[in-house]
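pls design
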């Protein structure tokens, strides 16, 4: 199973934007069912244009899932973290057109595509997970879990693991897109200067990295993942992630909904310093945008902060 995360700052996608992404792009599977967080709808309704139209009106929307026999596309979050995430599961490499459209949404942070089964087991630290799937675990290193008062699997040396962070997952996936908002967490110079993978710096500020192919030899994949994590200091970022999340009270991005002066129904304010997203407290420029119900920018203004 190929797993794709498309990560955003909280509130970046509303129900209408998510419905448009689903309706206007090939998903890599044939959708048959739509489930949402609404009472009576969590069990699902038959997927149809009419069901998508109803989805557009569901505000606020915490989660929604479009499913088929060979894939799914979900809008959700990362439990306990300031993030909004599209979780996309397909049998083959996903069509990248949806990713490119999502990357134009204000608040886009990052995308990563990789082997879903591999990252699951590289990250699984609970012994009962292995027991449920009838997989051996006694040969694996363990540490004491102070939270639950029991042993758990030590995944700290697994280079293919994932860990939550503000606005995104930390995962050395096969291919990655890092948007400007990711560089509040990551060091952009380190990303651009990576000596591993194929790095492309795009005019829109996004940096893409083709790290490895899914059918590469597993030893090569693990070596590339270790080098990638070391270069971007993922091991150092993981334990500091909670502190970084607390610091997000000084925003780089703010979203409001309502009826605004230029006809928009959503207003986004972004703060920058040296052309990169920056906390409001140290920003030198501010960009305000008004968007219509489909997420199209209908007015935008950039100003200098005195």
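designed seq:
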């Amino acid at each position: 199973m190929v797993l794709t995360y498309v990560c955003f700052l909280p509130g970046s996608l509303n129900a209408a934007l998510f419905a448009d992404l689903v309706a206007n792009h090939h998903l890599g599977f044939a959708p048959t069912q739509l489930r949402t967080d609404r009472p009576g709808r969590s069990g699902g309704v038959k997927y149809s244009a009419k069901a998508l139209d109803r989805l557009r009106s569901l505000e606020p929307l915490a989660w929604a899932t479009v499913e088929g026999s060979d894939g799914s596309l979900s809008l959700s979050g990362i439990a306990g973290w300031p993030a909004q995430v599209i979780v996309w599961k397909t049998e083959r490499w996903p069509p990248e057109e949806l990713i490119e459209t999502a990357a134009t949404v204000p608040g886009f942070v990052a995308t990563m595509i990789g082997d879903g089964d591999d990252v699951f087991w590289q990250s699984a630290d609970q012994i009962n997970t292995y027991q449920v799937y009838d997989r051996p675990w006694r040969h694996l290193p363990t540490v004491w879990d102070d939270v639950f008062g029991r042993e758990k699997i030590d995944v700290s040396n697994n280079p293919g693991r994932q860990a939550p962070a503000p606005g995104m997952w930390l995962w050395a996936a096969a291919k990655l897109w890092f948007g400007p908002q990711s560089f509040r967490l990551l060091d952009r110079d380190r990303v651009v200067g990576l000596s591993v993978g194929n790095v492309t710096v795009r005019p829109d500020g996004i940096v893409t990295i083709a790290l490895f192919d899914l059918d590469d030899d597993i030893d090569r994949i693990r070596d590339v993942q270790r080098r990638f994590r070391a270069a971007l200091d993922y091991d150092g970022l993981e334990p500091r992630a909670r502190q970084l999340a607390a610091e997000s009270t000084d925003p780089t991005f703010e979203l409001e909904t309502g009826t605004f002066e230029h006809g928009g129904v959503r207003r986004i304010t972004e703060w920058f310093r040296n052309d990169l997203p920056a906390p409001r407290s140290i920003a030198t420029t501010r960009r305000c945008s008004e968007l219509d119900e489909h997420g199209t920018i209908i007015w935008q203004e950039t100003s200098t902060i005195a």
